[in-house]
Amino acid sequence: MAVNFVDRAVLHLSAGAGGHGVASVKREKFKPLGGPDGGNGGHGGSVILRVDPQATTLLDYHRHPHRKADNGKPGGGDERNGADGADLVLPVPEGTVVKDGDGRIVVDLVGMGTEHVIARGGRGGLGNKALASARRKAPGFALLGEPGEEVDVVLELKTLADVALIGFPSAGKSSLVSVLSAARPKIADYPFTTLVPNLGVVTAGSTRFTIADVPGLIPGAHEGKGLGLEFLRHVERCSVLAHVVDCATLEPGRDPLTDLEVIERELSLYVPDADLGGRPLAERTRLIVLNKADVPEARELAEMVKPDLEARGYEVFIVSAVAHLGLKELTYAMARHVETARAEVEAVVPQRVVLRPRSVDDQGFSVVREVGPDGPFFRVTGDRPTRWVRQTDFSNDEAVGYLADRLARLGVEDELYKVGAVAGDTVVIGSSDDAVVFDWEPTLQSGAELLGARGTDLRLEEGARPTRDEKREVMKDRYAARAATQEELDDERRAGLWHLQGDDD
Fold first, then answer.
1. Could you give the CA distance from residue 273 to residue 453 in angstroms, rounded to a whole number?
2. Mind listing the domains of the chain with CATH numbers?
3. pTM score > 0.85 for this model?
4. Residues contacting 419, CB < 8 A, separation 6+
5. pLDDT (tens digit per residue) in 41-98
6. Binding site membership: which residues?
7. Within 13 A of 245's CA, how many CA atoms are on the CB side?
8. How far apart are CA 484 and CA 79, in angstroms?
9. Residue ranges of the OCT domain (predicted)?
10. How far apart, in whole angstroms, are the C-alpha atoms of residue 308 and residue 38?
11. How many helices (H) does the chain have, and how many strands (E)?
């Protein structure tokens, strides 16, 4: 690969964390009960991928793969909210495909200005001012900011061009691009001179289209030999493929028909991404360009093999990039096929917005019983319980109580009862990566578990408060029991069964 062009990069992205809320009490002269005034924390910045016309390579991300957005600022007293973290916008070339670690396509970035939020920033925590209510007038705690998302993605650049020039190394593809367009690629007479795809804009009459010079292919390119797999993906988006055949080669075992068959085989064995809607390369419109006709022997060979190629159904052109021979006919033929391919493309159907409201019985969380190395436990999963746990300061007892109240109102404890959990069981909230583990102590006491035996109701049993005389009798019994115990201990000590430190032996 050339040091100035990279079409694949692995990125490790981290969104910004939300700022913490603040627990503060307003202190002002002659106002001892000013009330809570803690501000909220700012939201963390997100990581955004955006198509930029100035970006042509992924080289910068190859050299610096770790990127992080700004964190949100913490809140302050006097109801001052923290500032939001700035979003991190990463410019990428048009045609960049974003994949996750498992190879699944996340988004295909096509169209200037298209952007996608690849990692969302964490929410800022609420201050005690926002947590105050009629029941909790002066909260002594605040919520913590959520951590930002962390993702690892793979960026692959697939060049957007209408026509792709393919063929063996040194077949004259770069020379054709230089004479058909204003592009000025590097040209030399040794194999693999071209290490990067070269793009050029061609005008034929009223039709304008882009042409790409794909680096030379060799047998086994679909398996990664040479530069094959690195650049075959740049052909996926092209609607017309032009085989550039070197008719002046002196290599043994090389001739136009053999070269064509080798390249056709590589195209048929390469499998494009089906998720992008790409057709197999063997189904694309193909033109045969017999190049270097300025050499007499090459022109004779081209005129000899042209009937055979036309008999196979190909449209054949004999050209010379050096002598500018046959280029006009080739250019208009490319434009004609490009116009046909564009007309076959279905009209873009506006994406239908589908609203999927949450069902009435959807609680937003689930409780399942699992078995781990230390025995069975109950796992609570859901966006809200997981988020609430992340926002809780477990060093503050009041904050822990607030979390318990939120979980109880959500119905987590009722669900734990239903799946068979009892006091003391292990409960895990969240995924295995950042889960919070604790022993469950129920705070919700209601329902059939408080009823007595069948036919009875403990709530209906009469109970009277003890009188003063009854309390005195209970206290006298306690004193008498303690005196009897002390006398028994003294008798044992005098009998020598035990002695106090300092007693004479």
1. 66
2. 8-157 (2.70.210.12), 161-347 (3.40.50.300), 365-446 (3.30.300.350)
3. no
4. 367, 368, 369, 378
5. 999 999 999 998 888 778 889 889 999 999 999 999 889 999 999 999 999 988 888 9
6. 167-174, 192-196, 213-216, 291-294, 320-322
7. 29
8. 63
9. 357-442
10. 84
11. 11, 18
Spatial separation of the C-alpha atoms in residues 118 and 193, rounded to whole Å:
36
Amino acid, single-letter form, for residue 415: E
> Do residues 105 and 155 touch, judged by C-beta distance below 8 A?
no
Sign of CA dihedral 350, 351, 357, 359: positive
HSE-CB of 396 using CA atoms within 13 angstroms = 15
Whether residue 159 contacts residue 166, with contact meaning beta carbons closer than 8 Å, is answered with: no
Per-residue CA distances from 21 to 83, 120, 413 (Å): 12, 19, 27
- At which residue do the structure tokens 């949100």 appear? 72
Distance CA 85, CA 121 (A): 8
Measured between alpha carbons, how far is 415 from 381 in angstroms, rounded to an integer? 12
Contacts of 495 (CB under 8 A, 6+ apart): none
- Residue list, annotated binding site for GTP: 167-174, 192-196, 213-216, 291-294, 320-322
pLDDT on residue 229: 45
Q: What single string gives the DSSP state of each residue in 419-433?
A: TT--TT-EEEES-SS
Binding-site residues from annotation for Mg(2+): 174, 194
pLDDT for 38 equals: 92
- Written in H, E and C, the secondary structure of 61-127 is HHHCCEEECCCCCCCECCCECCCCCCCEEEEECCCEEEECCCCCEEEEECCCCCEEEEECCCCCCCC
Cβ count within 10 A of residue 76: 18
Average pLDDT over residues 308-322: 89
- Residues 6+ positions from 56 with CB-CB distance below 8 Å: 5, 93
